[in-house]
Amino acid sequence: MATEAEKRKLEQIRQDLTTVGADWAIEADGASLALVVRDPVDGGPRAIAAIAADAPFAFQDFLIRAGERQQFLLDMLDRCSRAYRKLLEKQPKPKRYAAECAMKCRNDQAFRQFLIERHGLRDATDFERIKTKMHFILRIESLNDLDTDEAAAGRWKEFRAAFEQWRRQ
Q1: What pLDDT score does 93 carry?
Q2: Which residue, 63, 90, 117, sits at the end of a domain?
Q3: What are the CA-CA distances from residue 104 to residues 64, 68, 147 (Å)?
Q4: Which strands form 45-51's sheet, in the order they lie side by side?
Q5: What's the pTM value of the predicted model, to 2 decimals?
Q6: Dihedral angle over CA of 51, 54, 58, 62, nearest 10
Q7: Which of 48, 69, 90 is the last residue of a domain?
């Protein structure tokens, strides 16, 4: 990602290119060469620099294409940025197993009954006791481990599947 300074610099490049335009050329009058831009405001040609008569063609070509190439790079950057945002939108949202487990512990009476019947929880009236039992069963320090540790997430999925199977019986 770009820093704020880089974003400002990029915006300045965009503004400069809008002000000066991307249509550049070299004009010759027989004795001299000049770098000319087409003014975006009125469309008229504006000589902006004298070019040495013995300047190699590669240097002249570089100057002629500078605006066009800047525009090309800015357009490509915009396309890449749009493609990146589109890919981000397609990314699946991360699973929130910790929140799911907490909600089952806090609100799901069937889940509490499952803990009593299958896992020996004596008192399922207190959220903290239920949560402590889940820490023990899933071998985790915190429910957040379910979102950060793949093995813990796997144990939660197996536990949840066992609960769902028990509930269907």
Answers
A1: 80
A2: 90
A3: 67, 60, 16
A4: 24-28, 33-38, 45-51
A5: 0.56
A6: -10
A7: 90
For residue 104, give both structure tokens. Answer: 């089952």
Supply the pLDDT for residue 87.
92
Q: Count the domains in the chain.
A: 2
* Helix ranges (DSSP H) in the chain: 4-20, 57-90, 97-107, 109-119, 127-138, 145-148, 150-168
What are the tens digits of pLDDT across the range 74-85?
999 999 999 999
d(CA 35, CA 88): 43
Domain hosting residue 144, numbered range: 97-168
Angle between helices 97-107 and 150-168 (to 10 degrees): 40
- pLDDT tens-digit readout, 85-103: 999 888 888 889 999 999 9
Same domain, 78 and 121: no
Nearest-angstrom CA–CA distance, 70 and 17:
8
